[in-house]
Amino acid sequence: MDKIIITGIQFLILQVFNLIAIWHSLTRLNKLRWSLIIPVLTFFGAVFSWFSPILSGILFTAILVGLNYLSLSERTIRILYPLLGLLASLIIFLLINTIFNSQMKLLHVIAFLIGNGVALIIQNKAMQRLADIIFQQRLKRLIFINYLIIIIILLISTVSFGSNSSNPILEAEFIAILLLTILALLVHFFDTVQKIRQENAMRQIQQIENYAQVLEHSYTELRKFKHDYLNVLSASLIFIKNKNFEGLEQYYDEALKIIDTSFAYDDLRINDLQNISLLPLKGLLSYKIIAAYQNNIKIHFECIESVQITTISPVRVVEIVEIILDQAIEYVKNNQGKVDILVTTSAAEYLSLLIRYPLTHDDLIANQTNNLFKTILNTHSVYEHQTLQAIIATENNLELLNKVAEGFLVQELIIKE
After folding, report:
1. Residue 410: strand, helix, or coil
2. How far apart are CA 58 and CA 78, in angstroms?
3. Distance, CA of 101 to CA of 359 (rounded, Å)
4. Which secondary-structure segment (H or E) carries 101?
């Protein structure tokens, strides 16, 4: 009976901390559902532990992960909190039991309280520190695989050494193996994080190169227009000197047609919108750009190549772009500066929509930058009342890269084609 009670308390602790971890991402209905699910799972998990504590723990954790997946629209590492909570609790238990060699029954409860508290802190810190790459599929898969490897090691060791659980030498060897495995996985994890950030940096460098090409192309068009304009003036003078006004009128009409078709780069570059095939996105950008211009907000838009968006819902694209662009325009309106919008395509079959604007000196502080990213990610869509973070997490073909470079906040939406 004591075993069932202790196991039930452990299950309850894990569920409470899991609910804390996902609370802000739950809808009101899901919060109500969880309040009903927790006592039911606690009871059945405790009863099932009478037959097999190991299988009970594994099954219970898997059920929690599955419920998180169904409850949360955002596909982030928050879903995997039960694995992290269980892992941290088991490690704390092994360390305490090895150091103090205690047979106290409440040791399991204490280990679960400490372990889940540590797990919650680790997860929140990870969400903040990895905010710029947390939505990338490669990182989420790596975290999940690391969890599984450690859980499997714990399972194998528990089954293998179950009959020798009081042997301090075996426990010490197991802890050493576990810690070395965690260390190796951490080294691999941080190496992968560094590689992902380097790849993102290279991708952004490529975008800067594309931007430079856009500027060069614009300058070439401007020189061409200047050349055509001087030619028109020179030819007009000749017609005027010869008093050939009919020829002047005909030449003037033809020259204007040529110039109108060759020069399409005004201050706002509204004509570039014709290169975007997705009508809802084109309409949103045109409305936002013109509205910003009318409110004396500096904004620059460029899209010199024809772009196609077919892999995701147009509503999703509009939701994401509107949230990011509204935040950028509002920030520039309050702090001055200019919003740059650049839409490009890549040979790697992805479309990039980059929005950039300068940050104030106070916001360039690391903590303020993280808070700014967090505010943007938690902004709700006016269409489906989901946060930006939740919208991106539900789309496998989308990635949002966040970066601060040379005093600018750069947000790049990658749409995989």
Report:
1. strand
2. 18
3. 55
4. none
Helix axes 2-22, 28-48, angle to 10 degrees: 160
Torsion angle in degrees (nearest 10) through CA of 138, 353, 377, 406: 90
Q: What is the CA radius of gyration of the chain?
A: 30
Contact of 218 with 268, CB cutoff 8 Å? no
Task: Using alpha carbons, select from 99, 93, 5 the residue that is nearest to residue 53.
Answer: 5
Query: Is the CB of residue 96 less than 8 Å from the CB of residue 104?
Result: no
Q: Which of 256, 265, 261 minimizes the C-alpha distance to 221?
A: 265
pLDDT in tens, 299-343: 888 888 887 776 667 777 888 888 999 999 999 998 888 999 988
Decide: 76 and 389 in contact? Cβ < 8 Å: yes
Cα separation, 329 vs 294, in Å, equals 12
Please list the residue range(s) of the chain that carry CATH number 3.30.565.10: 266-416
User: pLDDT per residue over 194-237, tens digit each?
Assistant: 777 777 667 666 656 665 665 666 666 666 666 566 666 666 66
Helix (H, G, I), strand (E, B) or coil at 398: strand
> Which CATH superfamily groups domain 266-416?
Histidine kinase-like ATPase, C-terminal domain (3.30.565.10)
- Strands 408-416 and 298-302, bridge-based pairing: unpaired
Is 273 in contact with 282 (CB distance < 8 Å)?
A: yes
Among 9, 169, 194, 177, which residue's Cα sits nearest to residue 98? Answer: 169
Report the distance separating Cα 184 and Cα 198, nearest Å.
21
Tell me how long the chain is: 417
- pTM for the whole structure: 0.49
